[in-house]
Predict the structure of Acetolactate synthase small subunit.
Amino acid sequence: MNALQIKKGSTKHSAYNLRPQFSDVQETHTLAVLVDNEAGVLARVIGLFSGRGYNIDSLTVAEVDHTGHLSRITVVTRGTPQVIEQIKAQLGRIIPVHEVHDLTTEGPSVERELALLKVSGDGDKRVEALRLADIFRANVVDSTLSSFVFEITGTPEKIDAFADLMRPLGLVEMARTGVAALARGIA
């Protein structure tokens, strides 16, 4: 059978079907980036995202090795698998970057976020807010006659669910730290 005899529309035997398949499905990935703790490094890393139009859903930064002057940047971002691979490759080329880990693909990881929520209300709404806080294991860290400030730690989804329940009860203000994440087990 020659190429002219292959049924029209069939790609089973075509040499033109060697192109890699690209996905347009958006995925959320958590990246852990170990960098030198020096002025301008965060700006360079974040500049990579803004310069190419990539969005950052969450960002946390802290020094993790005082003697080695290293900081860890945890970035939650979204994109197609090809975009995520491009982000990781471009991050790895920045000079003060030592390591780039995609915690989403490298195996199980633990992600947590801290949030403070100010809820204003009285009477039954105050009682309901305290009841829900107990269910979600949120702590009251400040209280006045007209409001509470709750502290909650957990996955971003848990914090979203708690905030959604607090909105009709008088959620006034919220502050979130962003995701902190570590791979499970020994690396």
Summary: Confidence is low (pLDDT under 50) at residues 1-11. Strands lie at 27-36, 56-65, 70-79, 97-102, 109-120, 139-143, 147-154, 171-176, 180-183. The chain has four helices and nine strands. The longest strand covers residues 109-120.
